Amino acid sequence: MAQTEPNLDHDVSWFLLPSYWAKMVVALISFLCFANSYDGDFVFDDSEAIINNKDLRAQTPLGDLWHHDFWGSKLSSNTSHKSYRPLTVLTFRINYLFAGGFYPVGFHVINIILHCTISVLMVDVFSILLGGLQFTNKGRRLNLAPKTSLLAALLFAVHPVHTECVAGIVGRADLLCALFFLLSFLGYCKAFRENKEGHNFSIFWVLVSVILGAVAMLCKEQGITILGLNAVFDALVINKLNVLELIQKLLHKDKSLENAGLLRKGLLFRITLLMSGGASILYIRWRIMGTGPPAFTEVDNPASFADSLFVRAINYNYYYSLNAWLLLCPWWLCFDWSMGCIPLIKSVSDWRIIALAALWFCLIGLICQALCSEDSHKRRILTLGLGFLIIPFLPASNLFFRVGFVIAERVIYLPSIGYCILFTYGFSLLSKQAKKKKILAVAVLGILLINVMRCALRSSQWRSEEQLFRSALSVCPLNAKVHYNVGKNLADKGNQSAAIKYYREAVRLNPKYVHAMNNLGNILKERNELQEAEELLSLAVQIQPDFAAAWMNLGIVQNSLRRFEEAEQSYWTAIKHRKKYPDCYYNLGRLYADLNRHIDALNAWRNATVLKPEHSLAWNNMIILLDNTGNLAQAEAVGREALELIPNDHSLMFSLANVLGKSQKYKKQKHMKDELFWNLKLCSSRQLKQIQMLPVIMVIWLCFIIAGEILT
Question: Where is the DUF1736 domain positioned along the sequence (predicted)?
């Protein structure tokens, strides 16, 4: 189909493998890069997107997935991020159902398999992008660049910036999007399989490509950009369109546009199909999502809130340069780049302006070569490389709408395809000029090995929150969220003294960080440092008046200070801002019990159990209060109601047994105590079995270590 073009592999000193073996090598190396993340925990955003996402539970109707965002919130809600990824959430739900709960191993294994699959597909994709599209008479596609396509696929497979997508479970959205993104591209190429002269094509495969693009978008928003890239590929590769020549004809109002390739070979018709499909997909998504944009705060993306257009433009371009640097030198990686991690550029005297100049100098140089070079092969590869680098990045560029991050490594997953094309083409040009090609090949092999080691190291950091958060301290020491997360992790492990240090640093870096104030106030409350706790919590609700958790904690502190009226007001303010707040009703009940307002206390605890039927403390307090006030029959009824909902709760059994004893129902009391005893014994026997299994597990683990040492 295509005319013979200069072979990119001709001057490249690299491994030449059959297609099958090339794909096996890519799959194996991509697996080795991220294999050590398979048994990692749920970390960072995994908690909200998976553990706290009700859409994963079997009780939630499947239809709700199509009306909720990625985090399980209704798309119509003002607090929704409008990230509409129902197919990704569906795969999480399948993971959850097959595993029988929240066991991270299955989630991680699927992510690793997806990345390996995508890396293998990249061999075919790069063979088309670097070598062109050509079929045999039997319709079999030829790989005209086996060496460079293998190199580009290896560069993609081992790029450390992909670690967040593979080792972080929520990165599944990017992986699924990339999978269908590539399938859409390969499907579009199939439309020209029976094409001998370039005039015939399959409408079926064009439509399949549009559908796969829609599926990619239902996994993550970036997926829709494949339709634009298919159009670019059609124009450059299928129609061999000279963009500069076309622009000149348009400027001179030349009517011979057909000779320029715009109308021949059905290009205009196919682009119309792609544009119509894309517009329809976006319209449907817009109707489902609603017209309101997502609500982000200044700490998420400070540049987008700058009053000056100049400041916004300068900082957006600086962010682009940092993304480019992460592709070139992915050494400094961080799970979060917001909250002061990258201070705003507010003046042209800021030395960081150099990064912008370097970025645009390189881009302009590449664009000029892509448009003006007399070598059509060079024009095609550079334009495709720039297209795959820039177009998938556009949804994250802040150009069309505000995004909720400064830099996100996960959004570079697809743009890295363009980087790999440009790197490989640059390597081929150097190889053509170099006298000692093998030294150049060894240098590239060294880069690949360094990237493999960096991937393995970074994957190990994503295995637990403690390692992940601490790894960010050296990369983004000015990021308040990093210090907050380290402090939260320490507090969860019971190390309150160390947690206080990091919470204080988070508040120092960002004096309006209400979540850090709330958590610090909680710890100080538990340490009985009530005055400072009250000051912090009061400041938090002053900064964010609808912060329900801070209002509740402020009420607890005020209750401890015996300022009961203020505490009651704080509790009701919390409930006003969060209607379904069982813990707040529970604390309100405790306040009423301290004030001997027994009916109000029982009503508050009843509200807590209605909102959260498994709220054991609220049930238990109702039983005890009814017991203490002599309402034994009512206490027994409440106790039995609670045990129907929480049948294995030992504290409820004990409280109900006491009530039965006072009611002289000794047989029932004995039955309750026997049941409590056997439950406790069962728990102890399970713990004993787990302890007995430890030596076996250690022996198996030791065998794996010895086997690993022998193999290496």
Answer: 292-364
